[in-house]
Amino acid sequence: MSAAASRGRPGFPRHAEALDALGVRGRRRALMPRAGRDFSSNDYLGLASSELLRTAARAALDRGVATGSGGSRLLRGNDAEHVALEEEAAAFFGAPAALYMGAGFPGNVAIFSSLPMQGDLVLHDALVHASAHDGMRLGRAETLSFAHNDADAARDALRSWRGRGGAGRVWIACESLYSMEGDLAPLDDLAAVAAEDGAVLVVDEAHATGLYGVQGQGRAHGLDPSVDLLSLHTCGKALGGAGGLICGHPVLIDTLINRARNFIFSTAPSPLDAAIMRAALRLVAERPELREAAWRNITHAHEAAQRGGFGAFETQILPVLIGDDAEALALAQALQARGHDVRAIRPPTVPRGTARLRASITPNVSKDEIDALFADLADIRKAAA
User: Fold this and answer.
1) pTM value?
2) Annotation marks residue 382 as catalytic
3) 47 vs 10 pLDDT, higher one
4) 289 counts as catalytic
5) Rounded to the nearest 10 degrees, what angle do helices 288-307 and 271-286 cross at?
6) Whole-angstrom distance, CA of residue 39 vs CA of residue 361
């Protein structure tokens, strides 16, 4: 069919054909209602539906906190709750300053589109989040990747760039815990690479905030203080709410306020959300039993997975590699039919040929339910063999 004929047909046939092609490859996505036992959320401390945060929300409403901001932070949207959250977050995460964004994704876009300057280099882990890639595409700096979790490869790439005449500042970007691999970045080694060159270490703590660190401050807390550290803490995962907190040097925070277009031109986050996040930070700091309960389930899941022959894992995210897209989708659907909310992760979220089931372990399930998940997965795979 000619392009002109396609344009003349009702609806959006080219889009429909592209969606059909995704379906043939087992990659078409669809929204699903919440159903079954929670093995797919990032609610790592079980706070999202907790009475603890519902009580905080009611208390905030009772003292007059607004549900909406009414404008951008640079107009009338800058609420006292935003300011208080940023001050308290900076203190909690051990940073000089913080900035509250609507979510972690726009936080990364703001960082990488606004802070690295022309002539600089963003040197990033090959598996860094899509939001960082979107920010880099909008930015002015050169970009290079290094092999996943390989600090020596990062060092070699940096030295090679310097050898080719690179004279700007280097920004080393990684996640502290990778949400699809379930593995941990070698932060001490990457910090050493940054220290050698005077680079900025940019750490996305999305999946570590609340669950890692002495009080849940994340894995970058306590790194070599001589390294310039910029960290992003997502509020919608372990903290149980909404938003994202960028923590770093006051000059960088001020630069974001002045140059990050998605901060400048966005309506500010809800003051109520900010008030709830203030309460979440207090709970994480003052209630270590929240982390202890989470880790009891995580440890149990590691043992159950190993007993079932699914390999060894080190974090709350247990990716079971399948490979084929359609097979991963079929396995996920079979598990869902047995009451386990497990999702299939397929390209482009993960590299081609590495489709997987992603089991996320939270306090929202019991140990018996964790055992049942891995028993059912073993049973389904045996039946399909």
Assistant:
1) 0.93
2) no
3) 47
4) no
5) 80
6) 6
Q: Is 142 a catalytic residue?
A: no
- CA-CA-CA-CA torsion sign (252, 258, 259, 261): positive
**290 pLDDT above the threshold of 60:** yes
364 among known catalytic residues = no
Q: Which two tokens stand for residue 344?
A: 């299939």
- 42 catalytic per annotation: yes
Q: How far apart are CA 128 and CA 179, in angstroms?
A: 10
Helix (H) or strand (E) holding 53: helix 51-62
Measuring CA to CA, how many Å separate 332 from each of 328, 329, 362?
A: 6, 5, 18
Which own/partner pairs from 248-256 qualify as long-range (CB within 8 Å, at least 24 positions apart)? 248/95, 248/96, 248/97, 249/96, 249/97, 250/96, 250/97, 252/97, 252/115, 253/97, 253/98, 253/99, 255/114, 255/115, 256/99, 256/110, 256/111, 256/114, 256/115
pLDDT higher than threshold 90 for residue 383: no
**Which of 124, 133, 221, 237 is the catalytic position?**
237
All structural domains of the chain? 30-48+288-384 (3.90.1150.10), 65-286 (3.40.640.10)
Q: Edge-to-edge strand order for the sheet containing 121-125?
A: 97-101, 244-248, 228-234, 200-204, 170-175, 121-125, 142-146
Catalytically annotated residue among 207, 221, 302, 340: 207
